[in-house]
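Kindly review this protein for my students:
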Amino acid sequence: MSDERAVDIQKIDSNTDQTSIEGKNEHEKALVIVDETKKIIQNAQKQVNECMLLLKDDLENFEKSKQELRESALSQSEELLLELGFESDMLHTQEEAKIDIETVQNKAQEGAIEVQEILSGKLSSFLIGVLFALLLAVGLLYLALEATQTPWRLMGDSQYLTVVLSWIGEKSLSHANMFTGATVLVVVSMLFGYLVYTIRVSLRASKNLRVAQQIHQEAQFYCTQKDECKIQMEKVDAHINETIEIINVYKLLLQEQNMRLRRILLIEEKQEFESYHYKSQADMENTQRLVNGILELLSTPIAAQGSLSSQAQEALAHAKRVINHHIKAIYDKNIDDIF
C-alpha cells in the first residue's frame, strides 16, 4: 500500500474510532463506519479509473507512434534492404505484439465491494413488538377466562368482561376492579412489547456494527489491492511512454539510414553484398541492426497477467543498447550513451 493511501486509511480509522463515533449508539456508529467505508472505496475506484483513462490515452499515442514509424521509416528500410539484396531473418517475420491491456483493466476492476445500506430494523421490531404485546394480552385474557370459567363467546358482555378484568386486577395488584385489571393488561402488554422491541433493535444494532466493521476491513484490503493494480498500471504506462520516446528515436535514425540506402542504390545499384563498398556494407548492417532492434521491441508483449512483463523490460533495454551502439559508431565512440 502506498504511503498516501496508508495515511488516508489511518486517518479514517482515527476519525471513526475517536471523533465521529464518540457518544453515538451502535447503530449510529455503524452508519458512520459505513459512510467512511464508501468514501475510501470511491476514492480507490476514482484513482484506478483515472489511471485507466491515462493509460488508454497513452495507448492511443503508442499506436499512433508505431503507425508513423512504419509509414515514415520502418517499411521503407525493409524495402530498401530487400532491393539491395540484403537478406535478414528478421525482415517481414516479426509481428507486432498485441497489448493485453484488457487483462490489466479487468484485474483493476476485480474484487469490487458493494456496500449495502445499514437498516436500523426499527419498523420490523415495532411490528414484532406489537405482535408480542397482543399475544401477551390474549394470553392473559385466556388465563383470566379459564380461571373465572368464562366462555370466549361471552367476552362481549360487559358483565362477564368486568369479571375477567377484575380477576386480572386482583391477581396483580390485589384490587378486584375492572379498571385496575384493564390498566394492568394494557401496561404489561405494552411493556412486554416495548421490551421485545428494544431487545431486537439492540441486537440488530450490534449486528450492524459487526457487519460495518467487517466491511470496513474488507474495504481496506480492497484499497490495498487497488493500490497494487494502480502501481502496475503506472508501470505499464511509464513503459509505454518510454517506448514511444524510443520509437521516435528509431524513426529518426532509420530515416537517416534510408537516405544512405537510397544513395547506395543510386550509385552502386543492386549487386552481391560482398561487392558493395565496405562503408555501404556497414550502412546496410547498421540499418538491419536498427530494424531488428525495433522489431524485437514491438513484437514483445508489454503486459502479462495484468503486470508489466520482464520480457518487455528487457526488449526496451536492448533497444536502447542498439541506439547507443549506433550513435557511438557514428561518432567513433567519442560520445556518451544517450540512454
Confidence is low (pLDDT under 50) at residues 1-15. The chain has eight helices and two strands. Residues 3-118+211-330 form one domain. The chain has two domains: 3-118+211-330, 122-207.
